[in-house]
């Protein structure tokens, strides 16, 4: 998914451990951090802390403020999950430990004072930033208060232990508190400016988008232009019926925003019918310009799925590798079903192959079988010299299919519904056995490739495809293995179910709906530019903060 330039989200998403692990970890780390900090102060400072202070330090400094904050964040911001709340507290517990080690190297009382207040301000800013990104900037007033609770508890503990005995004037105390408030105000101002700039370009709140993606909310984007995309339907009937929907719509941009959950919604609907009937989603070669603006328009897509007329004769699967791209396809009556794969290519503009082709005559499917975690970043643009070359290869391959003779057609199929939907289709034509393995992911994991390699000993051709789903940012970030057990079960069932069959293709346009089109570019470009500006601004803020406190 590299070409869409939103894969930065993958680097920010990971599995948050359950509370059953976080709470014991917080207690154990409180003890460990206290022991290490005690040892550092004993070794590197002229202080001689009493061993009896170790337990109070562990409880009052390294444990209670973070237990308090972990529960408070979730209580005051109910939409913020408790596991995330305690994980943020664990992060700040580590920040405290790092600053404690730095503090053990302070060369005078003034530097020690600045390090301590840098710690308080750092924790406050981390809380503000994380909570705004996770829940939205509209709640900034509540966030400013709840984010202050953790550093406030640490300030109270600090003054209880040592803060009142350092001999600083009232001005220094007021200056330190003012610095904390000024830094927080400046951070909120930076975030508000970022949100304003993105809203002005795309009419979308940056923090509504990020919080929704992180929490897997479902929301419409007020973007795009009206369109009526084609929805192609390939149906196979061997007594049971398999319906394969191939809308000229891209599953995206991410999560519940727009059409990110399109493939799963389509698969759900196609498998919610009569017993024995099933369905799956096919990804056509298109880009994020074809993303749905409104997730509810998945229903509009489904309304265009049709029941095509079917024939009982088809050609053998024809394959040809042109170097830049490979095609696999068969003729069904006077129509064609073609699968493509371009190594190193993520997406294609819709016009690259289909600018002069009737969708009711040709189904073109992008296998999208790149590695899920290390996918390509190149996108082929319509009108480019590369697009012209691929188009010539496509037209040449279609000519090859036109000359392919027809034979009796037989097929078996199976769809397995799990957390990761899979499908298998086995086609038998003139003694040629072909296996198609499909999985509702954004690319293929190594274990699926290994499974396909194993089955190549049993079949003449094995094609693997993914739906290019963008339903789950967590999946995009963390999936390294697939449900090969369910996929194997589907393949075995499909193999056993092979019987004389009919197959047909049709196409129908949808009712008007909104696709992002060029608004997607505005959204992504704005987000990517402003992410970098935000990072630079935050780095400058922190540098100024250090200078302010120490000099």
What are the key terms here?
4-stranded mixed beta sheet; 47% helix
Topology readout:
Elements lengths: L18 H26 L9 H7 L3 H13 L5 H22 L5 H27 L4 H22 L8 H33 L3 H9 L3 E2 L5 E3 L2 E8 L3 E7 L5 E2 L1 E3 L3 H9 L7 E4 L16 H6 L9 E2 L3 E4 L4 E7 L2 E7 L3 E4 L2 H4 L7 E5 L11 E3 L4 H18 L4 E10 L5 E8 L2 E8 L6 H10 L5 E6 L6 H6 L5 H13 L2 E2 L1 E8 L3 E3 L2 H33 L1
Parallel strand pairs: 1-6, 4-7, 11-13, 12-14, 17-18
Antiparallel strand pairs: 2-21, 3-4, 3-20, 5-6, 8-15, 9-10, 10-11, 15-16, 15-19, 16-17
Helix pairs in contact: 1-2, 1-4, 3-4, 3-6, 4-5, 5-6, 5-7, 5-8, 5-16, 7-16
What can you tell me about this protein's structure?
By secondary structure, this protein is an alpha/beta fold. It folds into 2 domains: 19-216 and 525-550, no CATH class; 225-516, no CATH class. 47% of the residues lie in helices and 19% in strands. It has helices at residues 19-44, 54-60, 64-76, 82-103, 109-135, 140-161, 170-202, 206-214, 262-270, 298-303, 351-354, 385-402, 446-455, 473-478, 484-496, 518-550; strands at 218-219, 225-227, 230-237, 241-247, 253-254, 256-258, 278-281, 313-314, 318-321, 326-332, 335-341, 345-348, 362-366, 378-380, 407-416, 422-429, 432-439, 461-466, 499-500, 502-509, 513-515. The strands form 6 sheets. Strands 8, 15, 16, 17, 18 and 19 form a 6-stranded mixed sheet that branches.
Structural class by secondary-structure content = alpha/beta
Show unreliable segments.
1-13
Please report the total strand number as a whole number: 21
Strand content: 15-25%
Biggest sheet overview: 6 strands, mixed
């Amino acid at each position: 998914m590299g070409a869409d330039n939103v894969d930065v989200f993958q680097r920010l998403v990971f599995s948050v451990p359950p509370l059953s692990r976080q709470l014991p970890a917080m207690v154990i780390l409180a003890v460990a951090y206290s022991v290490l900090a005690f040892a550092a102060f004993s070794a590197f400072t002229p202080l001689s802390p009493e061993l009896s202070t170790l337990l109070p330090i562990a409880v009052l400094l390294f444990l209670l403020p973070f237990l308090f904050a972990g529960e408070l964040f979730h209580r005051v911001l109910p939409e913020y999950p408790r596991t995330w709340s305690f994980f943020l507290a664990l992060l700040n517990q580590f920040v405290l430990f790092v600053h404690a080690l730095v503090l053990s190297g302070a060369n005078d009382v003034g530097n020690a004072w600045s390090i301590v207040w840098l710690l308080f301000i750092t924790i406050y800013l981390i809380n503000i930033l994380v909570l705004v990104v996770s829940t939205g900037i509209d709640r900034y007033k509540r966030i400013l208060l709840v984010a202050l609770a953790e550093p406030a508890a640490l300030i109270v503990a600090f003054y209880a232990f040592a803060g009142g005995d350092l001999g600083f004037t009232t001005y220094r105390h007021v200056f330190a508190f003012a610095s904390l408030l000024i830094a927080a105000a400046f951070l909120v101002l930076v975030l508000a400016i970022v949100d304003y700039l993105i809203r002005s370009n795309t009419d979308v709140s940056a923090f509504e988008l990020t919080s929704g993606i992180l929490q897997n909310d479902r929301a419409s984007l007020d973007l795009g232009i009206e369109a009526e995309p084609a929805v192609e339907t390939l149906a196979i009937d061997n007594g049971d019926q398999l319906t394969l929907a191939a809308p000229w719509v891209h599953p995206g941009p991410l999560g519940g925003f727009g059409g990110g959950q399109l493939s799963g919604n389509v698969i759900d609907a196609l498998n919610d019918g009569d017993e024995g009937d099933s369905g799956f989603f096919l990804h056509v070669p298109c880009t994020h310009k074809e993303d749905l603006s409104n997730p509810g328009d998945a229903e509009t897509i489904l309304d265009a799925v049709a029941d095509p007329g079917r024939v009982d004769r088809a050609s053998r699967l024809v394959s040809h590798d042109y170097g830049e791209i490979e095609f696999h396809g068969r003729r069904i009556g006077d129509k064609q079903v073609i699968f493509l794969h371009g190594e190193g290519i993520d997406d294609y503009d819709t016009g690259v192959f289909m600018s002069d082709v009737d969708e009711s005559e040709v189904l073109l499917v992008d296998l999208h079988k790149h590695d899920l975690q290390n996918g390509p970043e190149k996108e082929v643009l319509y009108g480019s010299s590369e697009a012209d070359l691929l188009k010539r290869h496509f037209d040449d391959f279609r000519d090859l299919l036109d000359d392919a003779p027809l034979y009796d057609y037989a097929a078996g199929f199976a769809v397995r519904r799990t957390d990761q939907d899979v499908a298998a289709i086995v086609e038998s034509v003139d003694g040629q056995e072909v296996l198609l393995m499909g999985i509702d992911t954004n690319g293929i994991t190594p274990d699926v490739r290994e499974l396909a390699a194993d089955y190549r000993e049993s079949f003449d051709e094995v094609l693997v495809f993914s739906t290019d789903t963008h339903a789950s940012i967590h999946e995009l970030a963390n999936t390294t293995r697939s449900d090969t057990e369910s996929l194997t079960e589907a393949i075995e069932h499909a193999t056993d179910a092979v019987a004389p069959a009919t197959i047909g293709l049709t196409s129908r346009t949808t009712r008007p709906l909104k696709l992002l089109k060029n608004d997607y570019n505005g959204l992504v470009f704005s987000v990517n530019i402003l992410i970098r500006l935000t990072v630079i601004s935050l780095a400058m803020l922190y540098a100024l903060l250090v200078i302010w406190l120490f000099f």
